[in-house]
Amino acid sequence: MVRIDGLRKRFGGVEVLKGIDLAVRKGEAVSVIGPSGSGKSTMLRCINFLEQPDAGAIHIDGQLLGYEERNGRRVPMRAARLNALRAEMGMVFQHFNLWPHMTVLQNLIEAPMRVRARGKDEAIATARELLRKVGLAEKEREYPMRLSGGQQQRVAIARALAMDPKIMLFDEVTSALDPELVGEVLQLMQQLARGGMTMIVVTHEMDFARQVCDRVVFMDQGQIVEAGPPEVVFRRPSDPRTTQFLSRVLHRLGDSGP
Predict the structure, then answer these.
(1) Whole-prediction pTM
(2) What is the Rg, in whole angstroms, of the alpha carbon atoms belonging to the chain?
(3) How wide is the angle at C-alpha 212 spanned by C-alphas 168 and 176, nearest 5°?
(4) What CA–CA distances, in Å, run from 136 to 8, 47, 161, 225, 255?
(5) Which residues of the chain have pLDDT under 50?
(6) Is 142 exposed, middle or buried (0-12, 13-18, 19+ CB in 10 A)?
(7) Helix (H/G/I), strand (E/B), else coil: 187
(8) Closest of 34, 53, 28, 15 to residue 172, by C-alpha
């Protein structure tokens, strides 16, 4: 579903991504963990082409993202084609990014109508079904500022799902939430994973990574240091950097660690 080969990204004189290789299968839930500044969010933004890579290639469902071949040369992809590919990916951010001047329902129907060219009645029916699934059916006429942080994040997830994406990207979506609100968002993400949604989740929630995801990727200093099933990465890490990170993080959480 997603294949990344040799991904590099530099901001000024700092190389943030140093040759990332990663493949995510259809229906797989992959968590990306690591210390702050390791390049996790930058990688996610490159996958969605919110940041343009400096080198490497990203394929989404077999399609090269951002570029196309013309006369044997790789040239920038036409904007319409790029937007069509990006529409296959739903992305949820740390700070919700809901449109504050629109109601919850309007937030959900805007992109399907404009980007997917869906009729208003169809878009509304889909939006209401999604709001019911995320437990917010009664909030469709509310504005985002009248919702709790957890409710806003669930609306943001429903809005991404309204586009019927092939893959969902989550960028530290619980980091801005009060602790008592984290659980309701993680529960929804767990439901998506169990339903077979392809997911890449940048997270600091170690329990979610360990209990819900099929695979865990540990990043440090712009590189993938280690990747594997949660029980292996958490209990038998092969790299000292992974061991050090997990020992520090799990100790703060009161876990026994690796």
Answers:
(1) 0.92
(2) 19
(3) 60
(4) 40, 30, 14, 39, 33
(5) none
(6) middle
(7) helix
(8) 34
